Every structure is written in structure tokens, then in C-alpha cells.
Amino acid sequence: MAQAIDAHRTVEAIWRIESAKLIAGLARMVRDVGMAEDLAQDALVIALERWPVSGIPDKPGAWLMTTAKRRAIDLLRRSKTQVRKYEELGRTAPTYAEDDLEQVMEDGQIGDDLLRLIFATCHPILSREARVALTLRLLGGLATDEIAKAFLVAESTIAQRIVRAKRTLSAAQVPLEVPEGEALRERLSAVLEVIYLMFNEGYSATSGGQWIRPLLCQEALRLGRMLAEIAPGESEAHGLVALMEIQSSRFKTRVDAAGDPVLLLDQNRARWDHLLIRRGLAALERARKLGRPLGPYALQAAIAACHAQARTADETDWVRIAALYEALSRAAPSPVVELNRAVAVAMAFGPSFGLQLVDALSAEPSLRDYYLLPSVRGDFLVKLGRSSEARAEFERAASLTRNEREQALLLKRAAECGG
């Protein structure tokens, strides 16, 4: 029983890594995003049945793709209304052996499919909410309840958005392609947004037993770099790449040997990846040289740069960071930005000032179940010597997060506050 459970967990972990590439490749073949996801799920079910018995294959991603493609061919064979698609598939999409498919992935075709898929899921025919939900589901590998938790809305609402979005794309026969010219510019902001959200989910996982998902961040960063190459005149493309490069530089220090979170101020900065920091600073400079006011992503990159350029935590320029958050709150106002600004203000001018800002956010409906609100408030209360109140805030924060590692950290902080 225990062995079967371990095998299932391994399959689920592989699915998290491979699902986006799998769906992207299938979508190119069958020209239908909804069908591609169904086929990918079918392959997952087969893997869950077979792998606990036969063992995990050496190249699980290629195995899943081969299995799903065979299912696609079987499905199209059975459907008389899909004869034309089947014939086209037979001409243009050869059946790969697992070794062959591994080479295709290395050659970049799968990466191109991912970029095509993200532009399809960000098509203007869909609402912003539907674009975000569908892209996070297909490319981010997030479950419906994880997306709902991240956006503080009901799970049923997210499920409906995803189903309707797939139907809309199918009915409109939206092509899987990277647009050019004005069409590219019109869709770019939506694509940047979902890449940003993908990266955030990898940087601080909404749920599960791991605090970070580096592979998801790497995929978001790779897509961001590709976008910056095809849209070199868009400052926010460079700004987002800068942000992701700098944030990625901290991965080695974000968790300890046991996988538990290590907070920013406690990280060993000597172990940050300085190549990624240099790349991030160069991307930020490219955004600035375009001569336009910095947008939300570039402003966040500038904040990240302040941390990256401080040799120690004590040398951090919190006054500048607070000013940058003030600019960000004007460029992209949101309660979460205000919460982050409160942290910067507290670090720059004292916890009592930060607490005033946080208390002003306590009535914000979208933050009612957001674990970072009581977590930040608890931190301010600790610094002000109000331990019993801080303990209650950390306990509330722990009850709201679905990430096991973060929950353990918050309960530890609550215990440190004493009885």
C-alpha cells in the first residue's frame, strides 16, 4: 500500500512538471485546447494505472506524450466528422518513439508549442479572468482549487471560467500561433500577466508540501525571455524578465536542507546566483533605455534590484523600496501592493507606521482570507513587544495557508511568542 502511494505521488510530481509541454504539443496536433487537455488527462490516468506496477519509465514525459498521441489518433479514427483532421495529423505529425520525442523536446519544438499555447489561451476573445484561469490550469499545472485560492474566489467560479474558455476557443477555432505586429502588441500584456502569475506560483506555491516549484519558475522565465526577444521594444517584457531573473537568483537560499522556508532577511546572500542578478539588472536597464515610465513589472524589478545590490540585509535601502512601492501602488493599485508597501514602510520608518497601514487594510474583502495579512501584522506586533496578539495573528495565518511548509513556519513563529 505504501509503495503504491509513493508511486502515485511520483506520478503526480511528474505531471506537474510535464503537463504544460504535453498539452501544448497535443494542442498543436489536434487544434483544440480542450481536447488536448482531455487527452493529456487520459495519459495521466493510464500512467497512474501502469507505473505503480511496471515502474516509472526513464523518460516519463516522452512516455506520456506517446501515450496521449496514440489516444488522439484512436479518437480521431473513431470520429467520422474528424476525418480531415485525422488525415492531416497523419501527414504532419509523425508518431514519435520515446527516444525521438526526447530529441524533439531538446530541439525546442515543444518550447515553441508552449509559446503558441499561451498566446491562444490569452486570446482577446476571452475575458481577462478566463485567460488567467485557463493559462494557469494548462501551462501552470495548477488545480482548479489552487487557482481559486490564489485569486480568493470560489472554486466553482474558476471551474466555470475554465470550461467556458475552452468551449469559446474551440467554437472560434482560435489558431495556435504567435501573432505579429499590432496583434502581438494587443495580446502581449495578457501573456505577460499569466507568465508573471506562473512564476509567482513557482516562487511561493499556493499549496502542497513544497514551498517553491523551481521548474515552474524556470519555464516562466524561459517564456519571458522568448517574449522579450520577439517584442524588444516593449519595456514591460524586459521588466518582467528582469524581475524573474533577480528573483530566481535566490532559489538556492529560499529553503534550507530540510526544505523549510528561509525568509529574505535570513538568506545567505553570498549564495545568490550573481549571474542571474547581472542578467536581471541588464534587462532592467533595457527597459529604462526605452525612455518610457517604468510599468508594474519594471517597478517590481527595481525593488528586487534594491535587495540584490545590498551586500547584507542591514544595507538594504528600505526608504527607496518604500518609494518604489508608492510608485507601484499608483501604476497598479491593489490591496496586495499596499500590504507590501506596509512592510517596506515598517522597515524604513518603524513597525508602528507599518501597523497603521495594515490595520487600514483589515476591512478589505479580498484580503479577508489572505494569510499574509495576519502574518505581516503578527511580525509588526512582535517588533512592538505585543507577543500575545502576535501569536494569535500567526495562528490565524497558519490556518489560512494551504502550503504545508509555510504553515509549519507560521506555527513555529506563533510558538516563539510564548503563551
Automatic annotation (TrEMBL):
Residues 24-80 form the RNA polymerase sigma-70 region domain. InterPro entries: DUF6596, RNA_pol_sigma-70_dom, RNA_pol_sigma70_r2, RNA_pol_sigma70_r4_t2, RNA_pol_sigma_r2, RNA_pol_sigma_r3/r4-like, WH-like_DNA-bd_sf. It comes from the Bacteria. Signal peptide: none annotated. SUPFAM superfamilies: Sigma2 domain of RNA polymerase sigma factors (SSF88946), Sigma3 and sigma4 domains of RNA polymerase sigma factors (SSF88659). Pfam families: DUF6596 (PF20239), Sigma70_r2 (PF04542), Sigma70_r4_2 (PF08281). GO terms for biological process: DNA-templated transcription initiation. Residues 119-169 form the RNA polymerase sigma factor 70 region 4 type domain. Residues 187-287 form the DUF6596 domain. One of its GO terms (molecular function) is sigma factor activity. This is Sigma-70 family RNA polymerase sigma factor.
